Amino acid sequence: MAPRILLDATTVPADRGGLGRYVDGLLVALHALGADLAVACQRADEERYALLVPGARVIAGPAALTHRASRLAWEQSGLPYVAESVGADVIHLPTYTIPVSAHLPTVVTIHDVIHFAEPELHDPVRTTYIKSATRTAARRATRLIAPSRATRDELVRLLSADPAHIDIAYHGVDHGVFRRPAEADVRRVSDRLGLHGHPYVAYLGALEPRKNVPSLIRGWVKACADRPDPPALVLAGGGGWDDDVDAALATVPLSLRVVRPGYLPWASLPGFFGGALVVALPSRGEGFGLPVLEAMACGAPVLTTRRGALPEVGGDAVAYTDPDPSGIGRILSSLFDDDGRRAALAEAAHARSQQFSWTVSAEAHMASYQKAVDQYESSRTSRTH
Question: DSSP string spanning 181-204?
Fold first, then answer.
């Protein structure tokens, strides 16, 4: 008999972001596989999850969960109570925190360990907390899920996690949403950005140091030097912090154009990615790199780095650069000048993206849940003998 899974979606932020896309994609695929599901969520998401996973038990937490401290406190006491009330066999925590006394097997997804590998790229107070919480999860969870081999290997190297207790489950991509756009979709996004058909380099993500946006800005400036009609740079998304972004923007010549639209509507992302001359995501490290995969699924030529899990996602279907401005500028310039290369990358990227699906990811999660239940029962049996 398949285990009843309680997934804690209370961690999903209001803007959803990568964590929201992971939780939503996974839940839909688990439901399609016939998983026995219960979902704990924020009150604002109750209707959303009831529609996403019809028939699942959806439990909205108290209104105070919108505050991080209250949510963390509720996770320690309220979540185990919810698990007991719905008869859960296993709890899945889709990010790095965990109730310390759940009295049930727990599965925790650790998306990356960049706060351990490069702590200088993050806010020091938040880094201290995340490192402590991740260590606790790695030590106490029945099983860990990593979204890539790179993340699994870093968990072993930096946290001494037991590799026998780590399962790899690559993220998927919603091919119904992230697809090659129609010309009308591209034109609509271009007009919304005020570009009206002018070529652009696309970036989507938080403005935080590991995303390497200042180097992207400086590299793009180098690539545009002496060009009569240089492409614009569109920095979409929001959140995060990076004091160097404004400093880099201050160096942009007046002849070049930077567009900062903030968050883009979900439905506009295929047109945004697919309409770009190049999608540039030169991160200094990723546990998976979901925007890279989503851009690939939209048939975009993608430029990224060989850091972390990005080569596992991009394979031979993307262009790679060193993360410094000179390297970014050099590869961007070569892509600007080579229509055939961009077209070949776009075709290869779309083809490779078809290898990733939330169904395959959900199957790997289901296997991990069953291992956690079996492992927990085996441990309990051994303690009683």
Answer: PPHHHHHHHHHHTT-TT--EEEEE
CATH H superfamily, domain 4-172+358-383: Glycogen Phosphorylase B; (3.40.50.2000)
| Burial of 21 (C-beta count, 10 Å sphere; 0-12/13-18/19+) | buried
- Let me know if domain 183-353 sits in CATH 3.40.50.2000: yes
- Each residue's pLDDT, cut to its tens digit, for the chain (385 residues) gives 789 999 999 999 887 788 999 999 999 999 999 999 999 999 999 999 999 999 999 999 888 888 888 888 899 989 999 999 999 999 999 999 999 887 899 999 999 998 888 877 767 778 888 899 999 999 999 999 999 999 999 999 999 999 999 999 999 999 999 999 999 999 999 999 999 999 999 999 988 889 999 999 999 999 999 999 999 999 998 766 778 999 999 999 999 999 999 989 889 999 999 999 999 999 999 999 999 999 999 999 999 999 999 999 999 999 999 999 999 999 999 999 999 999 999 999 999 999 999 999 999 999 999 999 999 888 776 665 5
Residues forming CATH 3.40.50.2000 domain(s) in the chain? 4-172+358-383, 183-353
Tokens linked to 276: 């770009």
